[in-house]
Write a structure and sequence with these properties.
The protein is α/β, with parallel strands linked by helices and about 230 residues long. Helices cover about 20% and strands about 30% of the residues. The chain contains 6 helices and 12 strands. It has a 6-stranded mixed beta sheet with strand order 1-2-3-4-5-6. Helix 4 packs across helix 6. The longest helix is centred in the C-terminal third of the chain and has 12 residues. The N and C termini lie far apart (about 40 Å). The protein binds ligand L3IBWBLD and fe (ii) ion. The ligand N[C@@H](CCC(=O)N[C@@H](CSS)C(=O)NCC(=O)O)C(=O)O binds next to loops. The site of fe (ii) ion (FE2) has 6 residues, from loops. One of its GO terms (molecular function) is sulfur dioxygenase activity. Belongs to the metallo-beta-lactamase superfamily. Glyoxalase II family. This is persulfide dioxygenase.
């Protein structure tokens, strides 16, 4: 287990952070290992590393249930299509607002359940119109610390670009400040990419040190327009 603080939720949760080096993408594997079926989800799988991910899932005796995306990725091909050809029972998941195809569409406030655990969906548009953040939860007790998978809404000490079609610096600022910075300060933040060697941050750290999002909204918009 990646970490264990002794609470019920932490004993249940198996967590792995996986990296795809060509696009500097993180894929996240989560499973409820206290459930006899060991149901698992993958967040932001990349087509090039699908075999690695599925071998790991097989070795750990997990049953992959959902292959989820935080948003439509501009820099790499999602692995969800390939996963479904190799494991036909797996359901792909993306936000309805993304406009992309999937087996299951999510909206703000929805929950994706795997065993006793779930991921709560928060709409965090701005990098793309359909970006969401997934936040860990447990049906019996709130895991502490929580984990938030921010996609490209928040990158450690930075954020996703806002110059794509459907991107908006105004909206991204609002999303991060209302949906991510309001989470408990010990919440662990896991982005979809890192270009500097970081792996994880916290709400407390990003509220204090994020080079873009700590600024006022007008300064943030200028940074995003001129970078
Ligand atoms: N130049 C970027 C690397 C490529 C890139 O554009 N990454 C996206 C996320 S994949 S859609 C991004 O939003 N990067 C943050 C940015 O501020 O451009 C880099 O080295 O950051
Ligand atoms: Fe992106």
């Amino acid at each position: 287990m990646a970490y264990s603080t002794g609470s019920g939720a932490d004993r249940r949760l198996l967590f792995r952070q996986l990296f795809e080096k060509e696009s500097s993408t993180y894929t996240y594997l989560l499973a409820d290992v206290a459930d006899p079926n060991k149901p698992a989800v993958l967040i932001d799988p990349v087509d090039r590393t699908v075999d690695r991910d599925l071998n790991l899932i097989n070795e750990l005796g997990l049953k992959l249930v959902y292959a989820m995306n935080t948003h439509v990725h501009a820099d790499h091909v999602t692995g969800t299509g390939l996963i479904k050809t190799k494991l036909p029972g797996v359901k792909s998941v993306i936000s309805r607002a993304s406009g992309a195809k999937a087996d299951h569409f999510v909206d703000h406030g929805d929950k994706i359940h795997f065993g006793n655990l779930f991921l709560e969906v928060r709409a965090t548009p701005g990098h793309t119109a359909g970006c969401v953040t997934y936040i860990t939860g447990d049906a019996d007790s709130q895991p502490s610390p929580r984990m938030a998978f921010t996609g490209d809404a928040l990158i450690i000490r930075a954020c996703g670009r806002t110059d794509f079609q459907g991107g908006s610096a105004d909206l991204l600022y609002q999303s991060v400040h209302s949906q991510i910075f309001t989470l408990p300060k010990d919440t662990l933040l896991y982005p979809a990419h890192d270009y500097k060697g970081f792996t994880v941050s916290t709400v407390e750290e990003e509220v204090a040190y994020n080079a873009r999002l700590t600024k006022d909204k007008e300064t943030f918009k200028t940074i995003m327009d001129t970078k």
